[in-house]
Amino acid sequence: MKNYDFVVIGSGVGLSVLNTALNQDLNCALVENDKIGGTCLTRGCIPSKVLVYPADVIREAQHAENVGIDLKLKAFDWPLISERMWSQIEEGKKIKQGLSQVPNLDMYLGRGEFTDEYEMEVFDQNEKSLEKFTADKFLLASGARSLIPPIEGLKEADYVTSESFFGEKFPKKPWKSLIIIGGGIIAAEFAHIFSALGTEVTIIEMLPRLVSTEEEEISRILEQNYRRFMEILLKKRATKVKKEGGKKTVIYIDTETEEEGEVTGQEILVATGRKSNADLLRVSNTGVKVDEKNWIQTNEFLETSKQNIWCIGDANGKYLFRHKGNYESEIVTFNIFGPEDQKRRADYSAVPWAIYSYPQIGHVGMTEQEAIESGHKIFVAKKKYNSIAKGFAMGLTEEDPENGLAKLVVDQSYKILGANVIGPSAPVLVQQITYLMNSGYRCEVPEEAPVDVIPKQERACPEAGSFMPIYNSMVIHPSLNEIVGWIIGNLQPVNIEHTHHHHG
Predict the structure, then answer these.
(1) Looking at residues 401-417, what average pLDDT do you find?
(2) Taking the complete model, does pTM exceed 0.85, yes or no?
(3) What are 441-477's pLDDT values in tens digits?
(4) What per-residue confidence (pLDDT) applies to 498?
(5) What is the mean pLDDT of residues 151-166?
(6) Is the pLDDT confidence value at 104 over 70?
(7) Helices (H) and strands (E) in the chain — how many of each?
(8) Alpha carbon distance 291, 275 (integer Å)
(9) Interatomic CA distance for residues 218 and 223, integer angstroms
(10) Neighbours of 261 (CB within 10 A)
(11) What does the mean pLDDT of the chain come to?
(12) Which are the contacts of 19, defined by CB distance < 8 A and separation ≥ 6?
């Protein structure tokens, strides 16, 4: 039985770690059960954004009426849009070709499962054994897959997921009507794409609001906008699906009144969340522990409960975003191949993300409710897009449903706990906050000066992670940056009494 120095499961974020091992001339193997390149490249963030941008352009053209420009959509070229999307997915073939030429790497295209401690067997699509091997070290970067709820008749009627959409079920033209079960990030983006292209979209969500990871005000603004373009059914749980005459019908019940209803469409997209692939890996056979939701457990060093087995990316269930996985890949590379006494810790206090809905959403850190529940005494500030010159120039008014909002949550020391923005360039605006939240964690003290002569305030880095760099900076005028730059002047105490604070 062949033994490897290092084996990576999954060809997404794990590839950069694998590259380090290969450069050290270690004998390596890569196991991948899908297309080379991982979720983001082949069935996630990259191809979906190629579809989102044309939808953005359509909505922006419609919004142009607010500033006196009448743009009529003559047509859209779905084959060209599709061709551009597939060109990105096909990049995985180039990666595969490059990896196949690496002398100290074996590639196994199939499902790997642990059969014993540090022993793995790989099976093809027909569950035929391809190879069995052992390894000194494993990195689990095995991703996640769509969570399919137990809805009666769903399997028989057939449906689309984010995986199959970017595969065998990609439509030759936009569907005439689409029912989306779920109201999270994936649902919001697909709803935007197809509603802009003329598809009749219906969202069925069992929770009281869309994108429940966001601040409630943000969710309401998105809902208000989406109701202009599609049907939104909140507090509704899909219970049954039936297919008749080429149409699919989803039967649902109201979670409060238990009244029943139904909606019919050409296709159904299931976007009800993600689930772990740990069951496919059978990690219990090697002693790797999972949590109550079957996500692989990792410590702050990204180690699993089994020595010499690490886990990164979606597989550990912590923030299912590619940039989070990239961040972890850098840390785990150092921890696997660097000095044992200098291991680095993962910090998730300032994980940003974007939702490419319409309007766009940006998020980092805690929401107001999460901050309170975590025991913080907080200030909250809000600012609308129309209140700055650039926002008005873009045709945004107080009554406009597209009028965006920024919300900032800080504690008593002015440390930023979180931010949420909805509106044009929201991800760009939130990224500024992310940089501040990550700033100042390492105080650079002059080597020639003894610590005891450095003022205590400087040693403590009082501005670490605070909004003070914004407060003390000039802000380009007019620009959308003023939403973030001037929001500080709107700080209001939430659960703090008799406290003074800065005004911008």
Answers:
(1) 93
(2) yes
(3) 555 555 555 555 555 444 556 667 888 788 778 888 8
(4) 60
(5) 97
(6) yes
(7) 17, 22
(8) 12
(9) 9
(10) 12
(11) 92
(12) none
**CB burial readout 123-134, b (16+ within 10 A) else e:** beeeeeeebebb
Distances (CA, A) of 274 to 163, 200, 202, 314, 321: 11, 25, 21, 9, 12
Contacts of 406 (CB under 8 A, 6+ apart): 382, 383, 384, 385, 419, 420, 421, 423, 429, 483, 484, 487
CATH numeric code, 359-493: 3.30.390.30
User: Which segments of 322-434 are extended strands (E)?
Assistant: 352-355, 361-365, 378-384, 405-411, 416-422
Structure tokens at 360: 């766009």
Residue 389: how many CB atoms within 10 A of its CB?
A: 12
Residue 279 pLDDT exceeds 80 = yes
Please, are residues 390 and 404 in contact by the beta-carbon 8 Å criterion? no
Angle (CA) 415-349-372 rounded to 5° is 60
Alpha helices of 38-147 — where are they, by DSSP H?
38-43, 45-63, 78-89, 91-100
SS3 215: coil
For residues 11 and 17, what is the distance between their CA atoms, to the nearest angstrom?
10
Task: State the Cα–Cα distance between residues 13 and 142, nearest whole angstrom.
Answer: 9
Cα(117)–Cα(126) distance, rounded to whole angstroms? 25
Topology of domain 2-145+275-342, CATH: FAD/NAD(P)-binding domain (3.50.50)
Q: Answer yes or no: same fold for 2-145+275-342 and 359-493.
A: no
Q: For residues 247 and 263, what is the distance between their CA atoms, to the nearest angstrom?
A: 10
d(CA 482, CA 384): 10
Each residue's pLDDT tens digit, 323-347: 999 999 999 999 999 998 999 999 9
CATH fold for domain 154-272? FAD/NAD(P)-binding domain (3.50.50)
For the chain, the domains span 2-145+275-342, 154-272, 359-493
pLDDT, residue 504, reads 44
